[in-house]
Each structure stands twice: as structure tokens, then as C-alpha cells.
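C-alpha cells
===========
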Amino acid sequence: MKTLDYLHLNASVINNVVVGLKQLLADYQVFYTNLRGFHWNIKGHGFFVLHGKFEELYNDTAEKVDELAERILMLGGEPENRFSEYLKVAHVKEVSNVSCGDEALGNILDTYGYLIAEERKLLSLASEAGDEATVALMSDYLKEQEKLVWMLVAYSTCDCKK
């Protein structure tokens, strides 16, 4: 018997969910690498705040990478593990040589905007497939990321001059 038999999920119906999870995995892997670069290279007056925040973000992203890969396996798929393949399919693009906090935050916010849109699509696909565990996973990501985006926007638009 296959895992899906025990999960009571139809392999042909769940295939679109697996495809979406694989896309998200590739995007998160590239995002993780971008976050590491921001963490290493950040300079300027926001260094102390941003250096720590970027570390927090890449650790969270690494955890999501693992969750996504494991979910793909649970649904009968095989997660990609080659970075060369991620780069071929990821919509999140590599960035380098970013040391300015505003530029890094702009990239991070743009990436979360993209990820949130993709997670909403995947949540809908999973719901149609009766895959409540993936629905819950995407819902958890969305709840966390919406708050994070709000906080990052508040941080990046603060004008303390009076």
C-alpha cells in the first residue's frame, strides 16, 4: 500500500498539489540563499536590527523548506534537492551584493508578496483535493507572513523626523 491509501487521498487529484509544493520548494530555496546574503552583507545604521532579523528569517525559511519537502514525500512526490534545478524553475530570482537595508527589505517584501499569492493558490488547490493538512500548512504560513509583512512595512516606512 502507498501512503496516500492510508491518507485517503486520490493520487491523480493530489498531483496538482504536489506540483505546487515543488514550485514553492524551489522558490523557498532561492529565497533562503538570498536571505543569507542579506544577513552576511548588510551595512549601515540598521545593521544591528536587520542582521538579527535576517538570521531569524533565513532560519524560518530553512524550516519551511524541510516542511515542504516532507509534505511532498507524504503526498507521494519526490522533492528536488539540486540547486541547479531550483534555479531553472524558481520564480524568486537570486540576488547578490545587497548591503543596503532598504534594498534588502524591498526584495524581501516583494518575495513575500509573491509567496503569499502562491500559498493562497496552493491552499485553494489543496482544499479542492480534500488535503486538509496542506491547507493547514499554507494557512499557518499565511497567518505568519501577513503579520511579518505588516511589521516589515511599518519598519521600512517609519519617518521619525518631525
User: Anything to note?
Assistant: The chain has a mean pLDDT of 95.
